[in-house]
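Board work, copied verbatim: Methylase
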Amino acid sequence: MQGIIDKPFSPACEENKQPILEVLKPRLIAAHSVLEIGSGTGQHAVHFAAAMPHLRWQCTDVPAHLPGIRQWLDEAKLPNLPAPLALDMETDWLAAFSGRGYDAVFSANTAHIMSLAQVERLFAGVGALLPAGGRFLLYGPFSIDGQHTSESNARFDQSLQLQNPASGVRDRRELERFAAEAGLALEEDIAMPVNNRTLVWRRLASAAAPVDGGTSGQ
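↓ predict structure ↓
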């Protein structure tokens, strides 16, 4: 009973898991192994792995979050959900995850929590991990050309920086710069509910500068 009481739960994850899944399914249809960076409670992983049984979904997060994720995974008992692994952007995380055969990476609501240096490290690592054509799907709130897409996102950005001056809503152009350095091109910018977006990046065959990414909404 104690484990049930302590199992983490995020109302936001419960609300956004299906809209995110609808974006992921057609874009991960040819993928086999996905690395999720920052799995949070584990709710997303369980929902996505159940809906996409062809994928091996690898959860990761900072060590403090792993016990809660394990509770969700243990309860789900899905064969394509291995035990969660520790991943901290302040460590040499790439060395621990390279060579494991991931052909896609997913991350939700992490870029605004990380420092800018950590976000740059995130993109550099993803670019090194993914094979040519592999996708990196990044969900969350983003500004565009220095402008917030809603008043609520502007307020959220202010609250984040009051809690931690190193955090904040990231601008898409800034992420495009990090991506270009990592050999990633913006393929889609998809509008999501509650003023969020999913940015879909594709690993280029070479380190050449990417072309300007297309946009779409849904």
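The chain has one domain: 2-131+139-170.
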